[in-house]
Amino acid sequence: MPRILWQNTDISWLAAVVVVVVLALLWVGYRRSPLRGWRRLAATLCKLAALALLALCLLDPLWTRTQPKKGENEIVVLVDASASLDLAESAGGETRAAQVQAALASGADDAAWIKALGEDFRLRLMTSGPQTKSVPHFRGLKFDGTRSDFCRTLMTLRTGGSNLAAVIVVSDGNATDAAAWKTDAKGAPVFTVLAGEKAPQPDLSIVDASVATSPFEDAPITITARVSGSGKGTLSALDEQGKPMATEKVTLSGNTPQTLRLRLPVAKPGVSFQRLELKSEGTKEATLTNNTRLLAADRGAGPYRVLYVSGRPNWEYKFLRRAIAGDDDIQMPALVRIAKREPKFEWRGKAGESVNPLFRGFGAKDGEEAQRYDQPVIIRLGTKDAKELTDGFPKAAEDLFAEFRAIILDDIEAQFFTQEQMNLIERFVSERGGALLMLGGQECFRAGGYDNTPIGRMLPVYLDQATSGPAIGDARFNLTREGWLESWMRLRTDREEDEKRLASMAAFHSVNPAFSIKPGASILATVSDAQNSYPAIAVQRFGEGRVGSMLIGDLWRWGLNNEDSHKDMDRLWRQLMRWLVVDVSDSITFAAETDAADHERVKLAVRVRDRAFKANSDALVKIEVTQPDGTKSQLFVEPSLKEAGLFETEFFAAKPGNYRAAATVEDAEKRTPLGSKAVGWTYDPMAEEFGRLEPNRDLMQRIASETGGKMIELDDIAKLSDMLKNIRVPVEVTLSTPLWHTPWIFIAILLLLLGEWILRRKGGMA
């Protein structure tokens, strides 16, 4: 900033004396002057100003100013060379890349504004794409980058050099790493140059897409996509072999993106990949690169084991077991009590016999496997081997947590369990993250004595209210508002069809009445008789897990109505079982997280727990990654210092396509296998690059304003040379000019004295 510097401040007293003397002489000289009115005042001011300038010159004033030191300050010119710029905004028009090239160079010479900046600054020319490169000039640029990663480059450049004066970025603003942008208070200003005015037309595009899995049988995988553009098109989901799995027609108006959902009717367990395609009907588009997306879905791979405990053989178990018989991922070992504890009598089936003769029919032999008279008679069904559950319900966390994801209690009273076993079930849900479902048998809920027990505290309904009034009969089943929102509660894709199905359901006669639910619980279905409505299915979160209550004790009546009702009941059981196990973690979990700013970078995390679900850091973890071309990469995973039992590593994708990773876990000492898991992800850089084609004016304006720069249009790029000459730079030179030696000071004094003389002559003074 220009300013005046006084050099002889030590004689300022002399200047003050001169001013005082001048004022005295003027007062004396003009006191008796014949000049009157404005002439007298103007003449006085002219002489006073002239003598004041002469007095100030005694202080030897200097006129100082700063300007950039030539060749010492650096300016970086960063040009976005990504492929999305190589598109024309109208049919037959000039591409943005051609417009940018014309603004940077003219034939075999640099643009005039670049030359002008080069006279005062040291220029560094760079291009941004998947990698940032320094170039000697901008002539003959190739716009073929698969990504526009200039935000992270700007963040590095702004604080990377002490002599950096400014950064110029030329782009359409569609940065693929926009999520990484953060403003540092320190750093050089960024001047953004926006290329382009509107989105290329005509064009249909997939803006974004996501995939979700659910226990809903009609749609195990749902793809949600936002599409934009103008015209008619077809959105299709293809499997890995290119076979269409679902299609939907769409008509786009070009105003706002539309959201479409494709429900895939068939999906295999585990990791699968889908390819989403949007095809235009009869219209040639500006580009087809933004018409496809790669997606990965993970439905998990079983077997998912559910422990069923019943106090007596009943129809509910029969129909439930038949329903899941066709689901290879669900296994349901069962403990079914066929007789309660019996007192010892003197008479026995045979002389000297001490075991219960009820076991003879089940092939049990005398000895430890046969229950005594003072023990309940329990049979094991569907166990994985002869030893599993031989001691009844598990008593140790290692036997329960590691083997099962969910527990179903049916027709079993609370006294069947010891206090330690009930505490173990509570830990199974709250700490391990398992699921608990209580069915509506005659010895469950309040009738089973679960009030004021660890299991009763977890249930979503209150059990402390005594039931009074007539028994519930002819109760009709219906879904609540929350129930309609849960896909696993619905059995039809269309709500009207589901309502017709509910209207034709059989009435129920065995209901455990509950009059209120706990805070945070949800009622998904109700049963209603002529007077009242009661919860039929209620659920809630409890700690890390979930708990559900099926308060109907004769759901099997539904399946006896007709064949269609039987199929619907089976489907509900399967979806209910899926809901129980779908979000329950195993002792080994494997996750792949793509970096939001750098999509090449994938963080692989494996969490290992022992059989009691405590963190296990004493493990050896290996990961094998299969790339799109079939190449396999072996990764050794290091234990994390942040979390016990966590093993982390990173993988950088180099080729577009589908990636699979398999993690194997071994005991570090015994080298015995502990388990394995698989995940999948996709790397599709061109889909991200062409995801948005309309210039991102907001981002470019934000970068400029937050760094102290300015945004201009590409047509105004020639103004940069004049604009940057006035910015504050790190290295400046100070120029000083003595005012006493400047001609305008001498001229000003002469003009003031001449004016005073003319006024006196006009006023009649000699």
Short overview:
The protein is of the alpha+beta class and 766 residues long.
Structural descriptors:
10-stranded mixed β-sheet; 6-stranded mixed β-sheet; 36 strands; 30% strand
List the helices and strands and how they pair.
Elements: E1 3-6, H1 12-31, H2 38-57, E2 61-68, E3 74-80, H3 96-104, E4 105-106, E5 109-110, H4 112-120, E6 122-128, E7 133-134, H5 151-158, E8 164-171, E9 190-194, E10 205-213, E11 221-228, E12 230-238, E13 244-253, E14 258-264, E15 271-280, E16 292-298, E17 304-310, H6 315-323, E18 330-331, E19 334-339, E20 377-381, H7 397-401, E21 406-410, H8 419-430, E22 435-438, H9 454-458, E23 476-479, H10 481-485, H11 495-503, E24 522-528, E25 533-542, E26 545-550, H12 556-559, H13 563-581, E27 588-594, E28 601-608, E29 619-626, E30 632-636, E31 638-639, E32 646-652, E33 657-667, E34 673-683, H14 685-689, H15 697-707, E35 711-713, H16 720-724, E36 732-738, H17 743-762
Helix pairs in contact: 1-2, 2-17, 6-13
Protein described:
The chain is 23% helix and 30% strand. The chain is α+β, with helices and mostly antiparallel strands and 766 residues long. Strands 17, 18, 19, 20, 21, 22, 23, 24, 25 and 26 form a ten-stranded mixed sheet that branches. The chain has a six-stranded mixed sheet with strand order 7-6-3-8-9-35, with helices on both faces. The chain has a four-stranded antiparallel sheet with strand order 13-12-15-16, with no helix packed on it. Helix 2 packs antiparallel against helix 17. It is elongated. 35% of the residues are buried.
